[in-house]
Specification:
single chain; globular
Amino acid sequence: MAEENLDWKEALKSAESFHAFITDYFKTHKELTGSYEIPSYYEHYTVTLDSRDGIVITLVTGLNQNGVVASPLPFKQKESMSIEDFRNLILHKKFADQNMSLADVFQAVAGVPDSDNDSDK
């Protein structure tokens, strides 16, 4: 399958390529989990692919308040979206670290190869 060998960043450039890439990814992985944290804030997420609902993201967010006894409970939300909406989220989501995009986070957590890193292979 040629789609399996698509470069991550190349797949993001087209809706059709990304659909094939993400479908293949979730055939071999039940879910993708990861987190993002800065000193004052955190996000923990789980991403799955559902044949009926599309991409399902479960997100737990909260505040890191060291030494504060009455910190608010984490907030959990679940959202379903199309694969194309997920691609757009990856392309446009920025974290507090302006040098880190959701695409970077997804690539690191999913272990998705980047042609820049695999050029010697």
